[in-house]
From TrEMBL:
Domain Aspartate/ornithine carbamoyltransferase Asp/Orn-binding: residue ranges: 150-302
Presence of the UniProt keyword S-adenosyl-L-methionine in the record: no
Subcellular location as annotated: Cytoplasm
Predominant localisation class: cytoplasm
A Pfam family matched in the record: OTCace
Name of the gene this protein is made from: argF
Function: Reversibly catalyzes the transfer of the carbamoyl group from carbamoyl phosphate (CP) to the N(epsilon) atom of ornithine (ORN) to produce L-citrulline.
Organism (species): Metabacillus sediminilitoris
Protein's name according to its UniProt entry: Ornithine carbamoyltransferase
Amino acid sequence: KKTTTKRDFLTLLDYSKEEILNLIEEAFKLEENPIQNVLQGKTLAMIFEKSSTRTRVSFEAGMLQLGGHALNLNTQELQLGRGEPVSDTAKSMSRYVDAIMIRTFGHDKIEELANNASIPVINGLTDMFHPCQALADLKTIYSLKGKFVGVKTTYLGDGNNVAHSLMIGAAKVGMDFTIATPKGYEPNQTVVEKAQEIAKETGATIIVTNDPIAAVTDADIVYTDVWASMGQESEQQERLVAFKEFQVNDELVKYAKDDYSFLHCLPAHREEEVTASIIDGEHSAVFDQAENRLHVQKAILKELLL
Ligand code: CP
Ligand code: NVA
């Protein structure tokens, strides 16, 4: 049984500005020097209750590059899928592996897992947050713009997991962040208030609006995500209508800075939230962004497991 104190990575709210900047700096170092045998003999259990390409593959490759091992576990194959309590799963797994990464629905479930595990738990996406994505986004933005202060990042679309984490990340590092959503799809009010509170200390501005043109005006970064997230498939049709004005297309990006960059966490739906002309165009950095998932997650793994 492990008795040492552990730290989780559930939301960027739990990490200070300095800690976030240190993780990004370490990710840059890992990009330069990717193969390090520091996690030899260590195992990461990866539990997926939803689909994943980038998170799954980057965590598995990342563990291997650090000398460790990753287990790919789907809920249906675990007793969790047959009703075993999350707490018993957490306690049992803590006896075998060194960390758990989980992608699930409710954020309360990951908190329950973390509270019952004696090993670090990493959030690989919940309905509420996607902190690994936001850390990769911050690294990408820093690579593109060379700074955070004075950079305007605009997110268009649904005010949920990816937007929440990016908003918190922006507030922490002092980057200006505007989110434009259709009415009824605004970000969680508590998250907005927390981000605005943090922003007061870092000098960031956090703006929530329903006006896509005002939001994109003078943006350095234009960011979007799918209109119907995993678990919202039945709302697909009504969302196509509600989000129409928020599509990132050639017309809308005319309002952004001339040297704006386009980001998307992926997977993307071309001609829905973004046109092919933009995501496959010269301003798009979505695959550098995807690559950065690997670098930042290795930094997180080193931070939590060493
Ligand atoms: N962006 C992201 O988390 O991708 P996957 O769903 O493919 O893991
Ligand atoms: N908001 C999306 C992000 C996928 C990485 C979802 O939750 O499905």
